[in-house]
Give the backbone structure.
Amino acid sequence: MSRIVYVNGEYLPEGEAKVSIFDRGFLMADGIYEVTSVLEGKLVDFEGHVLRLQRSLSELDMASPVDMDELLTIHRELVARNELDEGGVYLQITRGAPADRDFVFPDPAETPSTIVMFTQSKNLANAPSVQTGISVISIEDLRWGRRDIKTVQLLYPSMGKMMAKKAGADDAWLVEDGFVTEGTSNNAYIVKGGKIITRQLSNDILHGITRAAVLRFASEAQMEVEERLFSIEEAQQADEAFITSATTFVQPVVKIDGETVGTGTPGPVAMRLREIYLDESRKAAI
Ligand code: PMP
């Protein structure tokens, strides 16, 4: 079945959707995105994603072509039209397509932003990798300095995943000045003596929507949380490690640079957090 996608106000079969070759998203990665997961046909933490979208837009002085209430309608319409039960809705806004390629931002009054949205069907809740845990390698974090903005500049994270694949691992953790920043497309955590440790928020990492929810649930469940730097060596010696993102929820990490973490199987803290996150997300999904 051909997907129905949304492009600049229109719902179209995916093969008919078009964006200009002058679009700044295409030419300059001048765009931002969000991915909202869908469980049982409902949107998980939609408000969190919209708030971060607004922040990304504002940090880049970019206008939204659609008002935020309308975004919910479009998300729901795409889920319904594509009969999506489980997976995600991808949303991208770019600074539009000016008449020519130019480093200077176009006048938003003359060049409206481009908005594109589409659904992806994926098994999220019962992903097989949750039972085994994943392996990660560490690589140097060579991304730019505003990783808190969710831009479509995903070349280095994409290269990181390929480096991991080549090394026989599932993903990569990025390291800067001796400390883990985050995963290529997720936030990184370790567990030591029952305490959940993750890097503090700054411009160095994406402020994960799943991270915020998981840390809130952890505190509500009286689990101790410490937001601080940690190294690969500390992670290898931790009791557990895991990642979070909108599409993986909480995913255990069992191997780091070939070293087994803890027992080498998904740990109890990660699995408990995953269960709480899934229960709460299902309840609150809209
Ligand atoms: N860090 C990076 C670099 C990411 O790309 C992502 C997912 N887009 C995350 C963290 C996790 O964010 P979220 O929980 O909002 O999906």
